[in-house]
Amino acid sequence: MQDSILEHIEKLLHSPALPEFPAEADKEDKLHAIHNYLVTLRTTLNAFATGDLQFPVDIHGVIAGRLKALQANLMHLTWQIQQVAAGDFTQRVDFMGEYAAAFNSMVTQLDNALTSLRQKEEELTKLTEALRVEIAEKEEALAVLRKKEAQFKHLAEHDALTGVLNRRSFYELACAEFKRAEEKGYPCSLAIIDIDFFKQINDTCGHLQGDDVLRHITKTIKSSLRHGGIIGRYGGDEFVVLLPGLDLKTTKKIVDRLRKQVAQAPFKTSTGTIHMTVSIGLAHVMPQQGLCQDTIFFKSVIKTADNALYAAKEAGRNCLVTLSHCAQQDNVTGKE
Amino acid sequence: MNTLPRKYAFNWDVIGTDVQEARPALGLYTSFEVYRLLQFTLRDVLESRYGTKAADEIFREAGTLAGKAFFERYCADATDIPSLVKTIQQEFRTLGIGIVRFEKTDTKTMTFQLTVDEDLDCSGLPDTSDHICVYDEGFIKGIFDSFTGKDFTVQEVDCWCSGARTCRFKATLP
């Protein structure tokens, strides 16, 4: 009997399978109590070993007390880890020996690493901000420079008084246009417009009024050339206009309309009205292969237009004289 | 509501404001046995006169009053649950009430579970298969009630006297 009881208790302690209660000891109440206690202990330990920390410990005594202490420690540790995960790095463990030291070291290192990362992030944010400010300043400076550059370019290319191209810029653009016309095979016309008796206006009304007249003439030329001719100021009271891609008939129509508009639009001043006329010399060019590639050609076209202008003045002013650049043939328009 | 004239209505002043002056030689602290002597003799008389249930209720109510006073004096600066938890842990240890460890702080459901090791009321008592920390239940309730403005139910779910080596309390809203 005693042997079977001891053997049963031994099995309860060591055997993986739960042993049957020995029938011969059925009336032994103390053995029943020990059996039940050990079965509960096995179940509780199994629950803890498989991670069920909430398993209720319903037995008493020193072993149960130790189990409950272990359970409480593990549950509190779980809570502490949850607090660390939520960002509370002040959590420290002051129980469970070696584990406590390892846990505290880990939390400290995590805290330090995160603090360091946060500092680096702050530094990076500050650097990024500083960089953004610097870029903005540089962009602002660049915008100012570009604006200035555009202003200088405009000033370098345009006549300060009238706002049209100056002679050099007109020359460059006109040369390029002649080359294009030669490649595409379309005609070009170049007109020189001279204000009749402009010196008298300067002498009688003053140079400032003369400047106003020049600006007024410029405005009239621009409004007459809506289709897109190139306008430049050639000299004191002389303007040049390049009209690409138009046949001679259309060109003459446009340029003569310009002449009429000047004559029909007197310039009103505070002291009176100034009536003006212009003489125009027009050189019509049919581009020929190889002829339009140099400056000599351009100068020769200017010469042709100049000759036509001279002829217009000889013809009594306020008229248009056309010369074919090749034929150098007079064709006076505007004189009745 | 009791309308009898009061002699012992609690506030911190009634226990003496300058303890250093009161006990210059003996100092602030006494043996925990003295604390328990007072508590258990008082329990004895209350139980003899009113029965166990009423004695427990009186103790729980006194604990709640103490918990509220404790909160006002020691936890008033707590701004959130984590800071309240830290303060409770720190002050319980400093004052020798016990070592508080939390197992659950669910602010969504307002459920809290904590253990008190080396509890001033019960650690080391004989195993009686009973839960006896009713004063602690009230004390913890007083703290949580004061902090949240809600009416908590605090129950001791495990006790030194029921074979544990720590006392476990669960605070919930009804």
Explained architecture:
The complex is a heterodimer of chains A (336) and B (174). Chain A has nine helices and eight strands. Chain A has helices spanning 2-14, 29-49, 62-85, 97-157, 167-184, 198-205, 207-224, 248-264, 295-314, and strands at residues 188-195, 230-233, 238-244, 267-268, 273-274, 278-285, 320-324, 330-333. In chain A, strand 6 (278-285), helix 9 (295-314) and strand 7 (320-324) form a beta-alpha-beta unit. Chain A has two domains: 3-86, no CATH class; 167-325, Reverse transcriptase/Diguanylate cyclase domain (Alpha-Beta Plaits, 2-Layer Sandwich), CATH 3.30.70. Chain A is an alpha+beta fold. The model of chain A has no long low-confidence stretch (mean pLDDT 90). With 174 residues, chain B is of the alpha+beta class. Chain B has one domain: 2-Layer Sandwich (Muramoyl-pentapeptide Carboxypeptidase, domain 2), CATH 3.30.1380.20. Chain B is built from five helices and four strands, in the order ααααββαββ. The model of chain B has no long low-confidence stretch (mean pLDDT 91). Classes of the chains: A alpha+beta (336), B alpha+beta (174). Chain A binds chain B through residues 57, 59-61, 64-66, 68-69, 72, 75-76, 78-79, 83, 88, 90, and chain B through 82, 86, 101-105, 113, 115, 117, 127, 129, 158, 162-166, 168. Chain B: This is 4-vinyl reductase. Chain B: Residues 111-173 form the 4-vinyl reductase 4VR domain. Chain A: Residues 186-325 form the GGDEF domain. Chain A: InterPro entries: Diguanylate_Cyclase, GGDEF_dom, HAMP_dom, Nucleotide_cyclase, Rev_trsase/Diguanyl_cyclase.
Total number of distinct structural domains of chain B: 1
Q: Which spans of chain A of ≥5 residues are poorly predicted at pLDDT below 50?
A: none
- Unreliably modeled segments of chain B: none
Evaluate the radius of gyration of chain A.
Answer: 53 Å
Q: Quote the CATH topology of chain B.
A: Muramoyl-pentapeptide Carboxypeptidase, domain 2
Coarse structural class of chain B: alpha+beta
Q: Please give the domain count of chain A.
A: 2
What is the second-level CATH architecture of the largest domain in chain A?
2-Layer Sandwich
Per CATH, the architecture of chain B is 2-Layer Sandwich
Q: Give the name of the CATH superfamily of chain B.
A: Trafficking protein particle complex subunit 3
Task: Specify the biggest β-sheet of chain A.
Answer: 6 strands, mixed
Task: Specify which chain pair forms the largest interface.
Answer: A-B, 17 and 19 residues
| Shape descriptor of chain A | rod-shaped
Helix content of chain A: 55-70%
Pfam families (chain A): GGDEF (PF00990)
Domain HAMP (chain A): 68-115
Organism (chain A): Desulfobulbus oligotrophicus
GO cellular component, one term (chain A): plasma membrane
